[in-house]
Write a structure and sequence with these properties.
There is one protein chain. The chain has 564 residues and is an alpha/beta fold. The chain folds into two domains: 23-293, 3-Layer(aba) Sandwich (Rossmann fold), CATH 3.40.50.300; 302-434 and 493-512 and 519-563, 3-Layer(aba) Sandwich (Rossmann fold). It has 22 helices and 21 strands. It is globular and about 75 Å long. The structure holds glutamine (GLN). Glutamine binds next to strand 17.
Length: 564
């Protein structure tokens, strides 16, 4: 959709002297450094400043596209088409800024560029060294990402003290040395409560700050992550041993919703403390929308049960939620907007294959089939979709979920026996989904990195469809003229136009295509409360304060049905 319309971003001013805020993590990984950074971004935005959030990942991959999702969670896609860490998704959701390619930095990108420059004799015969050449390249990237913004908020991946990320810490030290006034370091660290003691311990934080000190870095602000809020005594200890004033030790306890974090940090004056360090004052105070949202999250009671049916990796809930984080968040955003409490049910399509759709899916208010790859579990997805279509259960198909819906319709409504995608069955008599022509060559050449159809593409929505109604309801397209939207993609296969007419004749509605009409981007069904599949991933553009129209219309239909 038109991001300009959705984003509440403060437009960057080109002459601004950018301030850099680094966020590092200590003690253990996985403590929510990304959410803390995103929340600080949301707070600074609410104070009237523009923010460019950056994520630094320490691995040698050049992007997240070639990493197994089990390994690294969801692959998130920016508008300009880079595959990134899921934290960037949180940044966009929390700040409303349009995150771009420049906002994602990996060790692999840095070294690739340094090595390219060396081969191109761009170092004029110098011997190329980690310091200053690698650190300079890192700093150049950060400055480029921050250009024109008031703040560049940089999350350093990994935990302090690791061998792999040390060079990035070194680059922060050099930046501060060059311009003390424009750099601030926030350290997010964990305070455990060992069960045999029942008492919160601050020593690990002290030690991780020592490691920072040994690299020549003194944090300006410390955020203590813990199960419960830090008490005054703990704050005093951390302040004393870590060399910061007590009010610069903030508490960030476990909460039931990540969207509470900006409010929790702001209640401790995080925004003013940060602005003070730079000699700045808030231009406005406006966390009202967030506070209202938190209120809704805490008070909605009426439940809506949504089944998410896919081929799941592993069984752990943690892994699942990590691999589909944007889908989960999008369902939540839309549900809260309709004042219901979403309850998600993870269903393996292999279970559906074993036990049958009716047994497994009988009790849900809506069904989602999210993105996916490969053949395992696809028959179960198709069975699921047939169930949703015939029993008029609201259905939303995301990328693979749209392709599977096309196959289901081809087989069971258009009589095309054995229809499939060539991704699953290269010999299918009816390849209703097939590989995009340029993709075939790429796969043959083993050109896997960043080679899918990626990023934001324009799409024209057909008038008089459910899709049109969904976008119209949120004011994202006009009532007349071309209904143009822009949505994010990540796929190699597409709807086969040779089957377009046959499927349309059988009742399939094509409710969105590329502007030249050649690529089918959205399908839907008539005579059904809500049945829509999109080739793109709407979940990449849903925000807590601005839910995505397709998710919103899906949840609305589910709520309506439940009320009947
Ligand atoms: N596997 C499918 C494709 O490559 C769908 C991809 C997805 O769901 N992201 O087209």
């Amino acid at each position: 959709m038109a991001p300009e319309k959705r984003s509440n971003a403060v437009k960057p001013k080109s002459k601004t002297q950018t301030k850099f805020i680094f966020v590092s993590g200590g003690v253990i990984s996985g403590i929510g450094k990304g959410i803390t950074s995103a929340s600080i971004g949301a707070i600074l935005r609410a104070k009237g400043y523009s923010v460019s959030p950056v994520k630094v990942d320490m691995y040698l991959n050049q992007d997240a596209g070639t990493i197994r999702p089990q390994e690294h969670g969801e692959v998130w896609v920016t508008k300009d088409g880079i595959e990134t860490d899921q934290d960037l998704g949180h940044y966009e959701r929390f700040t409303g800024e349009n995150i771009l390619r420049a906002n994602y930095v990996t060790t692999g990108q840095i070294y690739a560029e340094v090595l390219r420059k060396e081969r191109a004799f761009e170092y004029d015969g110098e011997d190329v060294e980690a310091i200053p050449h690698v650190t300079d390249e890192i700093i150049r990237r950060w400055q480029a990402a921050g250009k024109g913004y008031d703040f560049c908020l940089i999350e350093l991946g990994g935990t302090v003290g690791e061998y792999q990320n040390a060079i990035f810490f070194e680059a922060t030290r050099i930046m501060k040395l060059r311009d003390t006034q424009s750099v601030l370091h926030i350290h997010v660290a964990y305070l455990p409560i060992p069960s045999y003691l029942g008492e919160m311990k601050s020593k690990p934080v002290q030690q991780s700050v020592r490691v920072l000190n040994s690299m020549g870095i003194e944090p300006d602000l410390i955020v203590g992550r813990s199960e419960v809020p830090l008490d005054e005594r703990r704050k005093e200890r951390v302040a004393l041993f870590c060399n910061v004033a007590k009010n610069y030790v903030l508490s960030n306890p476990d909460v039931s919703s990540i969207y509470e974090v900006p409010v929790i940090l702001e209640n401790q004056h995080a925004g003013e403390l940060i602005l003070n360090k730079f000699g700045l004052k808030p231009k406005q105070h406006d966390l009202r929308a967030w506070k209202k949202l938190v209120n809704t999250i805490k008070n909605v009671k009426k439940e809506i049960h949504i089944a998410v049916v896919g081929k799941y990796f592993g069984v752990g809930k943690f892994q699942l939620s990590d691999s589909y984080v944007s889908v989960i968040e999008s369902i939540k955003h839309a549900s809260w907007a309709h004042k219901v409490k979403p309850v998600l049910h993870w269903i393996s399509s292999l279970e559906v294959e074993k036990k049958g759709a009716k047994t497994i899916l009988g009790k849900y208010d809506g069904i989602v089939v999210p993105g996916g790859f490969g053949s395992r579990g696809t028959e179960g997805m198709i069975e699921t979709i047939e169930y949703a279509r015939k029993n008029k259960v609201p259905y939303l198909g995301l990328c693979y979920g749209m392709q599977m819906a096309t196959i289901e319709f081809a087989r069971n409504a258009a009589g095309l026996k054995g229809a499939n995608t060539t991704e699953v069955d290269g010999k299918t008599p009816h390849p209703v989904i097939h590989i995009m022509p340029d993709q075939e060559k790429k796969l043959l050449n083993r050109d896997y990195g960043a080679s899918m159809r990626l990023g934001g593409w324009d799409c024209v929505v057909a008038r008089g469809t459910k899709t049109e109604a969904a976008y119209l309801a949120l004011g994202l397209i006009g009532k007349t003229g071309k209904a143009k939207i822009n949505e994010r993609h990540r796929h190699r296969y597409e709807f086969n136009n040779q089957y377009r007419e046959r499927l349309q004749k059988a009742g399939l509605v094509i409710s969105g295509t590329s502007p030249d009409g050649k690529l089918v981007e959205i399908i839907e069904l008539k005579d059904h409360p809500f049945f829509v599949g999109s080739q793109f991933h709407p979940e990449f553009q849903s925000q807590p304060l601005a839910p995505h129209p397709l998710f919103s219309a899906f949840i609305k239909a589910a709520v309506k049905l439940k009320n009947q």
